[in-house]
Amino acid sequence: MAKPRFRHIGAALPRKEDLRLLTGHGRYVDDIEIPGALHACFVRSPHPHARIKAITTDPARQSSGVVAVFTGADLAQWTTPLRMAPPIEGLLPVEMTTLPMDKVRFHGDPVACVIAESRYLAEDAAERVEVEYEPLPAVADLQQALAAGAPLVDESLPSNLVSVQKYSTGDVAARRREAHRVLECAFHQQRMTHLPIETRGCAALWDEGRQHLTLHIGSQVPHPLRTQLAARMRLSESQVTISSPDVGGGFGQKIALYREELTVAAASRRLKRPVRWREDRMENLLAASHAREDSCRTRAAVTKEGRLLGLELEILEDFGAYCFYPANYLARVVAMILTGPYKLRDYAFEVKVALTNKCGNGPMRAPMAVTSWVMEGTMDAIARELALDPLEVRRLNMVEPGDLPYTMPSGEVIADITPRETLEAAVKAIDYAGFRGRQAAARREGRHLGLGLCSVVESTTYGSKFYKAAGIPGSGHEAAWLRIEPSGAVNASLGLGATGQGYETAFAQVVADGLGVEPSQVRIQLGNTDVAPYGMGSRGARGGTAGGAALYLCARDASEKVLAIAAQMLGFDSAEGLRMVDGKVEREILGERVETGITLAQVARTAYLDPTALPAGMAPGLDFSKTYDPPPMTYSNAAHACEVEVDVETGAIRILRYLVAEDCGTVLNPFVVEGQQHGAIAMGLSGALLEHMRYDEHAQNITGSLADYLVATATDLPNFEVLAMHTPSRSNPVGTKGMAEGGVMGATGAIANAVNDALAPFGVLAERQPLSPDYLRSLLRSARRGAR
Amino acid sequence: MLDFELTVNGERHAVRAEPRKLLCDVLREDCRLTGTHVGCEHGVCGACTVLIDGRPARACLTYAVQMQGHEITTIEAVAKDGKPSALQQALHEAHGLQCGFCTPGIVMTFEAYLKENPRPSEEAVREVLSGNLCRCTGYQNIVAAILRVAQAASDGKA
Amino acid sequence: MKPAPFRYHRPQSLGEALALLSGHPDARVIAGGQSLGPMMNMRLAQPAELVDLNDLKNLSFVNEHENALEIGALTRHHAVATSPLVRKHCPLLAEAAQTIGHYAIRSRGTLGGSLAHADPAAQLPLVAATLGAEIAVAGKRGERRIAAKDFFVSLMSTALEPDEILVSARFPKAAPGERHAYLQFSRRQGDFAIVAVACTLLHQKLKIGIGGVEDKPVVLLDLEPSDPAALGRAAREAVDPTENPRVPALYRKELVEVLVKRCVAKCLTSS
Ligand SMILES: Cc1cc2nc3c(=O)[nH]c(=O)nc-3n(C[C@H](O)[C@H](O)[C@H](O)COP(=O)(O)OP(=O)(O)OC[C@H]3O[C@@H](n4cnc5c(N)ncnc54)[C@H](O)[C@@H]3O)c2cc1C
Ligand code: FES
Ligand code: FES
User: Fold this and answer.
1) Cis peptide preceding A405, ω within 30 of 0
2) Whole-prediction pTM value?
């Protein structure tokens, strides 16, 4: 496809959404005024695992301001259970009711819902709901989960192992036998949570007359959410409207239909009154959704020169107690894209996922975050083992531009990526060549510097073919709608759910170029399922790729009709040579652009108000819709480089420099893209250094506040140096490749590699995150003991 | 329930609320000023930061009833006649916000801080900003925006 | 996360406040609310009566005496940190106060609240213990003065009776030629310290205070300003960290050694 030349796409346009958000006039769920709304508060289990013997709600019902108290038995009458049973080999089907009835499965599991006049009164009453529990032995970690005779988290399963997938291509055993060395590496990523600064929440309004439910909820995926909500309430999709207003961050936490939200919706219908729920931070930490907690091992067979001959990967993931997603879905992607930019034929993986008595997992910005750490940590291990330069090992194994498109050993195809170019640019910019000298000089002064590299190949956009091949039901398409109003105003929408990505601006730029108007003429209307077309929403990094393409193609359709009408108005036989620029129709005469005097407003007026003036056979109006299903998978790529200093006496890590060279294809808006790069890297570093959702050995959550769950603040992060090396994708109509998660992947790996580089003289290796100071000290301590 | 008066952004509001009602909730629900956000209710995230008599404070750690006789300023009063403050404008130009949920707290903190310290170093800005969590931006553009305001102020004076 | 109901009192004088406390066994005073607020929101504290001290403006002051500064209980951390008197005469106190929490927290939190709250990792109890401050408390039987070493009893527990109010603390002025240093190690800026160390040097005698390690600040007195590393090792042996699921005791000991070494070195080279 020829590279389209853009007038507005790629411009650094400050965001349209800023003014309202800066002045306190944003509208987040909790800002919507709903007269007479009742407030919900959930009673949560203090036990990680216990049988529910009885629930006494009477004292709570009598508490001041209380309207109702509902339990699992009530909800079971009004809603259907969630069955998670996609046809994936090795994945066992599971099911959950809206609220648990027989037993609780984690500390924070909701067992009852109090509805009262205010949240204050609801909390008072929640303390008076008496639940009689019979505590059961709990499963606190993977080891316990897989032990013989372990208590069953889900009693419908034969064991806690809910999913196992194996794959092998080539002959890894043969490669091991012929290898110069076989080395094994381990990577343990801790449990985390998304922590949007706006917690979950919703407000449900049941209209008894119309038998219609409106749910205001911050959602990344309004349409799929509506489909699920309607089904679980035994309503049709035409009886449900999802309205997602401004959303205070999602990061994957605002995709699933959670049990609390379904409960609130059902309560509103039952009580015929509006009911709202704002999760508090303690609930958010304990019970919203967790993520990660993977133990990965690689076994690499290598030649003397450091060439990778064969690679085996083993992943074990702790998925928590409930499956809001297919349990294999996150870890499997890691296995499929692990090898990234490296050439390899012989590869095998085994992915196991176990249930434990913890809050259920879900995808968190870069569900495959651990990938690049595992691969690039393995590259560093090869270099260490063979006393080679880690950069040389990467150069030796990396695909050359001429190898592309390249089929990874998992069968995934990478094309239109630039791993070598970005890597070379990154090492040059960070002065890799000079670093070893600086490092040696610093060591002489007792300062320990380290440099880490991390190449990232980010799977951004999943097409329907990918899902089909992976056995996951659902679609990868996105949908766009565009209407030019009689005045010439342009409204457009997508199925995406905005959570801060600047969609209202970047997509106005897409429409501007596709249609030929100014971005200021375009209003992007998102989040309301009565307006938005049925798309799959925002997850992964598909917004710019799938959404951008759908909208661009939709705007091209609109442009075609507009120009056809303009041609008719001008008395031309065809629209050839016509185009619209910033709402004015121009004509090309002998290579010169001449204004025709026709404007979009005139065309629109004709289309709506004077249809007889339209070309013969043309339908009135200017209303367009389009869907777009992207290729099976779209990849973008980046190279990260990070320089740290480790204070070996305290274990503290200071980031001295952080740099990324990234290629995400056509950039819709460089402000937005750079903001996403910063945000993703920040989240990766925050996770690698600080975040840790901890349970004690009895599976009690000990991370119930923001003084326990630590995320990076402004003093923990450096300024990021960004090298923009974008080359358009040839398979996407706009040329975008997607981004926004790769930064997490790269940062996770780059900082770990940098810290291990700094620790190298001590002969110790950090294999776990977070890289907390006491963990580093424990490593250094053992090193010294070993030396003695 | 108690009846009392609050002065918010120079306007008087008659409030009827329980003494335990948090200032953030009264601002949002009773005064209908929803720009003050609630992100943790234990003082850490900074989203609820408002000014009490010109000094920044967590509205989630204050009971509204305590605020009788004090002047409260919220994000809604920062732009004057629809014109954003220098700080708001700089945040817009430097792409210092994404989802915007943390933004009001950050603006309130720095409206106060920059009055007290008009020409802070980057280190000082980051130190103060560490009291406001932002999960979206990585902070870099927020820091840049604040430094831009400081720079403009000192250019103006020079 | 909303507080349980309480009755609210807003006394206009110390006497009125004291009467409220002695009249209601389940009453609690609130000053800055920066520690009590979170506890009440989480319902870890549920006082039936809340006695708001914020109108007692005469409890907010920094007064200079011949050998000491007297600081009112209601003085905010920010005012302590930026007060010219405190900076001049108790620079250690000003420096430590500047590291408490965050800007907005320091604008509200009070000296009296921090001392009364007695978090073992808090800056102000550590400085009070290290400098040998004297704490004045008022009760219905009148006022009494308690030496810091007797005031801090254990984890969040002090010599304050439930019906007493902390009114001020008297910090000795730094003597001419006295040097000081403060260092703390926390996971992030503004977090409570894992270990904090304050030290002063006068007439070749070192005083070292260590916070965050035991259930109250540990003060080592009259040390010879010898090799900082040796002092670090000695301090490590002198402390007995409380077990904590988040930070292993051994790590705390290591931090004590490193921070004492660094803090002493900083003190010796300070002017
Ligand atoms: C995010 C955050 C970070 C923080 N970081 C730190 C930190 O790094 N270091 C640190 O030291 N502190 C920190 N704090 C706590 C802060 O310093 C508090 O201000 C201080 O601990 C308590 O002071 P207050 O005035 O707010 O007291 P309040 O919260 O009002 O009261 C605390 C306790 O003291 C009692 N009390 C208060 N005043 C008196 C009085 N005059 N007489 C008798 N009893 C009284 C109260 O009844 C209550 O039991 C932090 C707080 C937050 C929210
Ligand atoms: S809501 Fe007040 S600080 Fe987080
Ligand atoms: S912009 Fe989203 S939390 Fe700061």
Assistant:
1) yes
2) 0.97
